[in-house]
Design a protein that fits this description.
The protein is α/β, with parallel strands linked by helices. The chain has 2 helices and 8 strands, in the order ββαββαββββ. It folds into 2 domains: 11-76, Flavodoxin domain (Rossmann fold, 3-Layer(aba) Sandwich); 98-128, no CATH class. The chain has helices at 27-38, 59-76, and strands at 11-12, 15-18, 42-43, 48-51, 98-99, 116-119, 122-125, 127-128. The strands form 4 sheets. A two-stranded parallel ribbon has the order 1-3. A two-stranded parallel ribbon has the order 2-4. The model is unreliable at 110-119 (pLDDT under 50).
Length: 129
């Protein structure tokens, strides 16, 4: 048995994936949620119980749950001044740019392991710009 305040410094939220056709729907998620509370952890956002039987699958619960989760996280950890949240439909600039370089080898392998990226049985040479 553990002390009831063991997780007093923990804030949590749980989302479970399940199927309501099963007798113990989302049992693991519900049990984890209950146990975290018993050990003194603090729930900062409600439990979410995804159901494969939902008309939209588990996403029918996951999508709205995630919207609320982000709001709850922002309330706990606000965005620093001068920064903004990117819109869902935006694509951030890549941190790295790569280009394929020729090594002169016809087999597609490189003699230098440090200048190639392994993918399956082939090695592809690369260089960062």
């Amino acid at each position: 048995s553990h002390p009831p305040n063991l997780l007093r410094n923990i804030r949590f939220s749980v989302f479970g994936l399940g199927d309501s056709h099963y007798r113990q729907f989302n049992y693991a998620a519900r049990r984890l949620h209950k146990r975290l509370l018993q050990l003194g952890a603090h729930e900062f956002y409600r439990i979410g119980l995804g159901d494969d039987q939902h008309d939209f699958g588990f996403e029918g619960e996951l999508d709205p749950w995630m919207e609320g989760l982000w709001e709850a996280l922002l309330a706990i950890h606000p965005i620093p001044d001068g920064l903004t949240i990117l819109p869902d439909d935006s694509m951030p600039e890549p941190m790295y740019r790569s280009r394929v370089v020729s090594t002169g080898a016809r087999s597609g392998t490189s003699s230098s392991a440090s200048s190639s990226s392994s993918h399956g049985h082939f090695k592809f040479p690369f260089a960062h710009e």
